[in-house]
Design goal:
heterodimer, A: 310 residues, alpha/beta, four-stranded parallel β-sheet, 8 strands, 46% helix, globular, B: 151 residues, mainly alpha, 6 helices, 0% strand
């Protein structure tokens, strides 16, 4: 089965962030799927993927936790594709797949804990884990998306920020860097491609995968703020009105430190953050409210209104 | 060698007008600052910074040296490569406006490197919690760690 068909109905693993701070991402992903005629079936009784806390204590336990999600999707729901829009979840499921393929110790721990928990052990290769970007790119594609756009993004200038966990470390993403048509780990472009098809103008943004210091936001918040402000300024200097995101942690980090930079250091930046699913939803004629733009801390409605997008 | 603080101050105060005043030397100044940042990291870890080049750039050779045994340093692999790319762009024929805009972008890239490496020197675990995670109870290499790629 080709990807276009295979991705029409997928198991949906929202993960914890999309039920909390990333609620707008959850809402817009579901609305976008509906609008495009794609079906999401949420993984039943899903658990934490093990990001990042468990992984840093015992990576094999994280592998087990991620494998349980994939096991439910494959063995209890009959799916062979799991779509995870959160970079952390996506990364962890990919890492688990890699570990289970390559490390006997990880397989042993997963086997033991699965049997203890009373569910079938996940076997490497049973499912393919994809990101929301792969989902839209392969199930719909730019050509089809451009045809379905209503109004579009009218040249809205966008800097696409992919964050770190979508591409690093490279070896857990064997499908990337495979030449034309595949995603690149050093210069990712799937989000750029989709938003351009929806009428946006992507700016030349050099910090697409730069570390935002997100995980250190509590222990060393000044470094995180500096890293984020630099990302925001780089986007603004490139002419961006909006930074498109595809990770709830990145999104929250950019929003939080934008506010903190102004309050603590008097550094003001005006660029707005929106999930790429929100931008595509608006381009397809959905209202900002429907795709959760009002739930973002960074209110991008004025940027959309200025271009008569919504 | 300039201190990291001095490099940070220099880059924060940098303006496109300053680049114009430096003329053709401006991209090299920026690249030199990036090299000095990674040199600081290596010296702090008791390594002699290499004088070799990789793909024509000493910065890329320094990054490879720094990333050996420290997967979290891969977080700035793309940053170093982007700085090299911007340096190359600055050598190509372009309008003065495009040349300054490219230098301004290169400045942000190098500034990221200054903050990331500076942050790692204060808190070595920066970058080890997400894309280059490392089990906190196990030193590198002792366990099966999937994030041990080298640049």
């Amino acid at each position: 089965m080709d990807k276009k068909q295979a991705y029409k109905k997928v198991a949906y693993y929202p993960g914890c962030a999309l039920e909390g701070s990333g609620h707008g991402y959850n809402r817009s992903t579901k609305e976008l799927g509906k609008k495009l005629g794609l079906e999401l079936e949420e993984v039943k009784n899903w658990n934490c993927c093990g990001a990042m806390e468990v992984k840093n204590i015992d990576p094999k336990i994280q592998t087990y936790l991620s494998s349980r999600v994939m096991s439910i999707a494959a063995n209890e729901m009959g799916h062979d594709v799991v779509m995870a829009p959160c970079n952390g979840c996506y990364h962890n499921l990919k890492k688990a797949e890699y570990d289970l393929t390559n490390d006997e110790g990880s397989r042993e721990v997963t086997e033991r804990l699965s049997s203890k928990a009373g569910h079938q052990t996940y076997q490497a290769g049973q499912v393919e884990t994809i990101h929301a970007l792969d989902w839209i790119k392969d199930a719909i594609g730019e050509e089809e998306l451009a045809k379905r756009v209503k109004g579009g993004l009218k040249g809205l200038k966008i800097a696409n920020y992919y964050g770190c966990m979508y591409t690093r470390p490279r070896h857990i993403f064997p499908e990337k860097d495979q030449g034309p048509g595949s995603e690149s780990t050093s210069a990712p472009h799937f989000m750029d491609d989709l938003l351009a098809a929806a009428g946006a103008e992507n700016v030349d943004f050099a910090l697409k995968t730069a570390c935002c210091g997100g995980a250190h936001t509590l222990s060393d918040k000044d470094t995180s703020t500096k890293l984020v402000v630099n990302i925001l300024k780089a986007a603004e200097e490139a002419g961006a009105e909006v930074i498109a995101t595809e990770c709830p942690t990145c999104h929250a980090g950019l929003e939080m430190h934008q506010v903190r930079a102004e309050k603590e250091f008097g550094i003001k930046t005006n660029v707005k953050m929106m999930y790429f699913t929100q931008l595509l939803g608006v381009a397809l004629g959905l209202s900002p409210r429907k795709v959760g733009i009002l739930e973002n801390a960074s209110d991008g409605r004025a940027a959309l209104k200025a271009r008569q997008i919504a | 060698m300039r201190s990291l603080v001095a490099i940070e101050e220099w880059i924060e105060e940098w303006t496109p007008e300053a680049a114009t005043a430096s003329g053709a030397a401006a991209p090299q100044e920026m690249l030199g600052a990036a090299e000095a940042v990674v040199e600081h990291w290596l010296v702090a870890h008791e390594k002699a910074p290499t004088l070799d080049t990789y793909e024509g750039f000493r910065l890329l050779a320094l990054h490879r040296q720094a990333a050996k045994g420290d997967p979290s340093f891969n977080a700035c692999r793309e940053t170093c490569r982007e700085a090299a790319y911007r340096y190359n762009l600055a050598q190509a024929p372009s309008t003065p406006e495009a040349w300054r805009a490219n230098l301004a972008t290169m400045r942000r890239v190098v500034q990221h490197l200054v903050y990331f490496v500076g942050g790692k020197l204060r808190n070595a675990q920066l970058g080890e919690f997400c894309c280059a995670s490392r089990p906190i109870r196990n030193p590198a290499g002792e366990d099966f760690v999937t994030n041990g790629e080298v640049a």
